[in-house]
C-alpha cells in the first residue's frame, strides 16, 4: 500500500480503496459507504466485492468534510449538497460549451 501522506498529486487514473479514501478524509468508513449508498460517491465498479474509487473521489470526500465542518451537516444533508454541487458543475460545463459555439461579440 502507498504512503498516502506523501502523495502530492493523484492521477485521475489512480484507484483508491475504501481504506485509502477514509485515510484521506475526516470521514469514517460508514460515512463513506453511506455517501456511496446515497449516490454522492460512485465506486468504479458497483458490483465489486470491495469498492474501489477513482482519485476524483478524494475531492468529493474533502468537500464533504469542509461542508460538515462549516455547516454542521449530517451525512444525509452532505450527500444531498454534494449531488447538488455536482449537478451545478455539470450545468456550468454545458453552459460554457454552448457559449463557445456562439459568435463573438465585438464592442
- The DSSP helix count reads 4
Order of helices and strands: EHHEHH
Major pleated sheet: 2 strands, antiparallel
Query: What's the overall geometry?
Result: globular
The amount of beta strand, in percent, is 5-15%
| Fraction of helical residues | 40-55%
CATH hierarchy class name: Mainly Alpha
> How many beta-strand runs?
2
Name given to the CATH architecture: Orthogonal Bundle
- CATH topology, which one? Multidrug-efflux Transporter Regulator, Chain: A, Domain 2
What does the model show?
The chain starts with 14 loop residues before the first strand and ends in a 7-residue tail after the last helix. The chain has a single domain, classed as Multidrug-efflux Transporter Regulator, Chain: A, Domain 2. With 107 residues, the protein is mainly alpha-helical. The chain contains 4 helices and 2 strands; from the N terminus they run E-H-H-E-H-H.
